[in-house]
Write a structure and sequence with these properties.
The protein is an alpha/beta fold. The protein contains five helices and seven strands. The chain has one domain: Nucleotidyltransferase, domain 5 (2-Layer Sandwich). β5 and β6 form a beta hairpin. α1 runs parallel beside α4.
């Protein structure tokens, strides 16, 4: 399996509001930047979408280290919450989980790829995180 690093970030102008996501795939000396967004979304949806789009861009199963400044995303996997939510029909207790469509898509991609999640502190000078933030905010700002 190829070893790939995936850096992701989401941004939102208002919450909900105009949003963008950015992702950077790194394989050896090769880098690929991706971005997109939605005119009416939330920050958490953009964080999840960045991870989904980054993983979806891979053309074969890979070993992926996914870096994100979203505790929502990273802790869902590191703490095993995503397995509990899925087993409960994308519910947390009696409450329906927000963004079940995205969680299901992400879960399916983590079944294809071997993904390790790593949290990085946002807006703290991490080069790839800062680049992803610029991609995400530029896209959100383009939706005016």
């Amino acid at each position: 399996m190829k070893k790939v690093e995936l850096y992701t970030d989401g941004a939102c102008r208002g919450n909900p509001g105009r949003g963008g996501w950015g992702a950077i795939l790194v394989w050896g000396a090769y880098e690929k930047e991706l971005s997109g967004g939605d005119s009416e979304t939330t920050n958490n949806r953009m964080e999840l979408t960045a991870a989904i789009e980054g993983l979806s861009a891979l053309k074969e199963p890979c070993e992926v280290t996914l870096y994100s400044d979203s505790k929502y995303l990273v802790d869902a996997y590191l703490q095993g919450w995503v397995n509990s939510w899925r087993a409960a029909g994308w519910r947390r207790g009696r409450e329906a989980l927000k963004n079940p469509d995205l969680w299901e898509r992400l879960y399916a991609l983590t079944e294809i790829h071997k993904v390790s999640f790593v949290w990085v502190k946002g807006h703290n000078g991490h080069d790839y995180n800062e680049r992803c933030d610029r991609l995400a905010t530029a896209y959100a700002d383009s939706l005016i």
